[in-house]
Amino acid sequence: MQKGKMNIAIVGAGASGLFLAKKLSSCKQANIVVFEKSNKVGTKIKASGGGKANIFNTNLYPTAYNNPVFVQNLLRQISVEDIKHSFEQMGLRLAVDDENRVYPATFSSQSVVDVLLTNLSHQVKIITNYEVKHITKNGNTYRINDYNLDFDCLVLASGSPAGMNRTKRTDYNAYLNSLPFKQQPIAPSLVGFKLQAYPKILSGCRVKTDLSLYQNNNLIFKEFGEVTFKDDGVSGIVVLNASAWYNRLKNKDNCSLSFDFLCDDNYDLQKHWQQYHDFCGILSPKLNQLYQQKPFNIRCLQFKILDVYDWEFAQVSSGGIDLDTIDEHFQAKKLPNMYIIGEMLNIDAVCGGYNLFFAFASAYITAQYIVKLWK
Q1: 8, 124 in Cβ contact below 8 A?
Q2: Where would a tag sit more exposed on the chain, N or C end, judged by fewer CB atoms within 10 A?
């Protein structure tokens, strides 16, 4: 059991960092300093849900994540209701859509950031434009760079380079190199695909389709949704979800995307052609134009995957710090009173509020444990 004043450092003022700072505000002994590399806070919250902030999902299922067992154990400690109640206590009204996605009732991501900042106590200090370059352990405390304060507790919540351009992501989270954490290689996730032998005539086409991800003709993932065809590949929520499953593969050899534009096995295409000699009433204009130039299987237009798009187009990352590095309270096993939360860990999920839920949930559990430890 700890006594007296507690100095806490949080590296990163994103979703998990801000939520953690808010939850720790209830501890009167806490003196909290949040270090943020950029000049803004809550950047990924603002980008979530197309600027509407899809902060969690009421239908939470472990297989939405790359490590279902870890998430299943997580849900024994925390529920969706806990996160919902936390935001409602901050004065944030919530709205739920038909797919169980939860947004602020304003449908503005800025509202989420605003309530988090407004509810911070005077014990929380946020320092922006501050890059953490190295962390040193001094007995039972930690020192960040040459900042003139020893911290009893340190929480790493600096996320990943997802959504950043090349300049901003250079040496991102480089401070981790001096810490004894095993890491899995990170890659862009919830991101579009570049495709091989791609017909540029489709650029700008938006259409609903059954999308399938295959590897060596084995079905990996299938979902119905809207796809946006770009200059060299595809995007759209269903595509982003496919990228999450793509990143879970041990290798990426011989992967392809298949599009079923009919989504109706009972419709007689041959009879339609015999009667109309055209598919303009079935296919969108650009797809029909492609068919006229080079006929294809409407129920299975297939392209080999070249790669995913670059980091700046990604919503999250796959990979990260091994889950074996932390205990059930997100405390580093080799470094007492150091915690790792949110997207830094090797946990990622499909679209729909699952990634932000994990950011908030990991912060919630960590805050509870720190407060309990210090009472």
Answers
A1: no
A2: N
Alpha-carbon span 9 to 151, nearest angstrom: 6
CA 292, 296, 301, 307: dihedral to nearest 10 degrees? -70
**Annotation: CATH topology of 6-187+317-374:** FAD/NAD(P)-binding domain (3.50.50)
Give, for 169, the enclosing helix (H) or strand (E): helix 166-169
Q: What is the pTM of this model?
A: 0.95
What percentage of residues in the chain have a pLDDT greater than 90? 90
Tokens for 33, please give them.
């300093």
How do residues 33-88 score in pLDDT, each as one tens digit?
Answer: 999 999 999 998 998 888 999 999 999 999 999 999 999 999 999 999 999 999 99
Count, residues in the chain: 375
CA distance 345 to 222: 26
The residues with which 303 forms a beta bridge, in sequence order, are 257
Residue bearing tokens 């991101």: 191
Task: Give pairs for 368-374: CB < 8 Å, separation 24+.
Answer: 368/23, 369/329, 369/330, 369/331, 370/8, 370/24, 370/27, 370/153, 370/339, 371/23, 371/24, 371/26, 371/27, 371/30, 373/1, 373/2, 374/1, 374/2, 374/3, 374/6, 374/27, 374/29, 374/30
List residues bridging with 218 in a β-sheet: 215
H/E segment holding residue 227: strand 218-229
Tally DSSP H helices, then E strands, for the chain. 10, 18
**Cα torsion angle, 135, 136, 142, 148, sign:** negative
What 8-state DSSP symbol labels residue 310? P
User: What's the CA gap between 206 and 286, in Å, rounded?
Assistant: 9
> Parallel, antiparallel, or unpaired: how do β-strands 30-35 and 6-11 relate?
parallel
Helix (H) or strand (E) holding 358: helix 354-374
DSSP structure string for 11-35: E--SHHHHHHHHHHTT-TTEEEEEE
